[in-house]
Specification:
The chain has about 90 residues and is an alpha/beta fold. Helices cover about 25% and strands about 30% of the residues. The protein starts with a strand and ends with a helix. The relative contact order is 0.26.
Length: about 90
């Protein structure tokens, strides 16, 4: 699970974009796509553990107050992570 602490403001992003955008109080900030970053982490973990990558499920959680302004895949959350994991 990747935890994104800068989850305030509006979040714009696409699964395949290298960077996403956060708009906070009229200022725009670019940050690395957490889905792509998490994918690299889970691949490294699978290799280290000697298991298939498909056995690891990626979840990206934005903490704080944010609003997604573009459609997000089901594994990108701003609330309800406990229910998602269960």
């Amino acid at each position: 699970m990747s935890l994104v602490s800068s989850g305030k403001g509006w979040i714009y992003g696409d699964e395949k974009q290298a960077q996403w955008t956060q708009v906070l109080y009229g200022n725009k900030y670019r940050f690395q796509n957490p889905l792509l970053q998490n994918c690299r982490h889970t691949k490294a973990l699978a290799e280290f553990l000697g298991i298939e990558h498909s056995k690891i499920h990626s979840v990206v959680m934005f903490w704080n107050e944010c609003e997604f302004k573009t459609p997000m895949p089901p594994n990108v959350l701003d609330r309800g992570y406990t229910a998602h994991i269960k």
